[in-house]
From TrEMBL:
This is DUF641 domain-containing protein. Residues 110-158 form a coiled coil. It comes from Buddleja alternifolia. Residues 1-11 have a biased composition (Basic and acidic residues). The keyword Transmembrane does not apply.
Length: 422
């Protein structure tokens, strides 16, 4: 009976071995060193993956594209290594039909690591998206830097032209395309148009202040040029524009504008550089920064010539502003600043005219001269000749004309002997 019982026990154990595959702990017992090495590699791989992930995070603060790319490659490499270890383990250790508690714990750990891997993969994709966004931001910032550099070079060029910078840069601003203005007839023609507009713009506040002070505008216009027959009463504004123009252009043909010349000798190129420098400046800033410059003296003398003291006394009730200008000052009143805009446009035209070689020549037309379409242009466009047998004549020259090279820039005139077409 004892022998039979021992045999039954042996058969049951043999039967149990045939039904179940080899458990993992038995395989581990059979190959303890290999299994220990595998687990060690898994732990090492996970530690490396965590380290790579930390490096990837660190590369974002401060933002470093090269470090981000390198850390990203390490993360991907460690993920591949872990995947290879997983496949290696599954190939050599088939899943048992009945797992032991030890098997369950290891399976749970593996599942945990797989979940972590999925988290890392999501984070990697997120970081890659952020990298693309950062690259886009970098491109925009580079463009802004380029634009700021161009503005800086332009400002440096302005400072050099005004003599305010300490030293010339080895690479000029013109090479960067910031001063693309070329000395040309078209540029001068544009300056003439700007000067004429400035005369027109300054005449408006001047006439308005005369009205406010109770002036007789008909009498004032007649005192400028007597016995002019105007097609419309509103055309008398051209008398005041002519008054401003005649006084502003006195001395224009002289290179120093009939002012006391500065100590420095002016070349054609330096005159053009002065034009470029002042073109970008506010005229009040220009005269306040360099109150002893020839431009500042030009503004003072022309103001005293254009605005009569009787005008100022009636406008302001005193001569304080006139006395301030006479003493070399530049008041910040709206009226004086309006005049400075006019003075700047005429001065720019003068600097430009004498930048050409030979210099641009100015010409005027006298009253009662016959109208010539070659040398003159009527400020009133829609006029009709009253007597077809008699040519219209010049009543007022509102703006002089210019000879530049072989071309003519017409003078602006107000004609008599015409009427306005309705």
């Amino acid at each position: 009976m004892q022998h039979s019982s021992a045999k039954d026990t042996q058969l049951r154990e043999s039967s149990n071995q045939k039904v179940h595959p080899q458990p993992m702990e038995e395989a581990a017992n059979q190959h303890p060193e290999a299994m220990e090495a595998l687990v060690s590699r898994i732990f090492t791989n996970i530690s490396s993956l965590k380290s790579a992930y930390i490096q990837l995070q660190a590369a974002h603060t401060p933002y470093d594209p090269d470090k981000i790319q390198a850390a990203d490659k390490v993360v991907i490499s460690e993920l591949k290594n872990l995947s290879e270890l997983k496949h290696f383990y599954r190939e050599h250790n088939p899943k048992p039909v009945c797992a032991s508690p030890q098997d369950s714990r290891l399976a749970a750990e593996i599942q945990e690591q797989q979940s972590l891997l999925k988290t890392y993969e999501v984070m990697v994709k997120k970081f890659q998206s952020e990298i693309q966004n950062k690259d886009s931001d970098i491109l925009q910032l580079e463009q802004q830097i380029q634009e700021a550099t161009q503005k800086r070079v332009k400002l440096e060029k302005n400072l050099k032209l005004r003599g305010l910078s300490g030293k010339e840069s080895e690479t000029g601003g013109a090479e960067n395309g910031n001063f693309s203005l070329d000395l040309s007839p078209d540029l001068f023609k544009s300056a003439v148009e700007g000067a004429y507009k400035a005369i027109h713009d300054f005449s408006k506040p001047l006439i308005n202040m005369m009205k406010a002070a109770g002036w007789d505008l008909d009498a004032a216009a007649n005192s400028i040029e007597t016995d002019i027959i105007y097609a419309k009463r509103a055309h008398k504004k051209y008398a005041f524009e002519s008054h401003i123009c005649q006084r502003m252009f006195i001395g224009f043909q002289d290179e120093s504008y009939s002012m006391k010349p500065e100590n420095t000798f002016c070349t054609k190129d330096s005159l053009f550089q002065q034009y470029l420098a002042l073109k970008e400046m506010d005229p009040l800033d220009a005269v306040c920064q360099t109150p002893d410059s020839i431009f500042a003296k030009f503004c003072q003398s022309k103001y005293l010539l254009v605005v009569h003291q009787k005008m100022e006394l009636s406008f302001f009730g005193n001569l304080d502003q006139r006395n301030y200008v006479t003493g070399g000052g530049h008041p910040r009143t709206a009226f004086y600043q309006a005049f400075l805009k006019l003075a700047k446009s005429i001065w720019l035209l003068h600097r430009l005219a004498h930048s050409f070689d030979p210099s641009v020549k100015i010409f005027q037309v006298k009253r009662d001269s016959e109208f010539s379409e070659v040398y003159m242009e009527s400020v009133v466009k829609n006029f009709v000749i009253e007597d077809v047998d008699q040519k219209p004549k010049v009543g007022l020259m509102v703006m002089p004309g210019f000879w530049i090279g072989g071309s003519v820039i017409q003078s602006q005139v107000y004609l008599t002997g015409v009427k306005v077409a309705e």
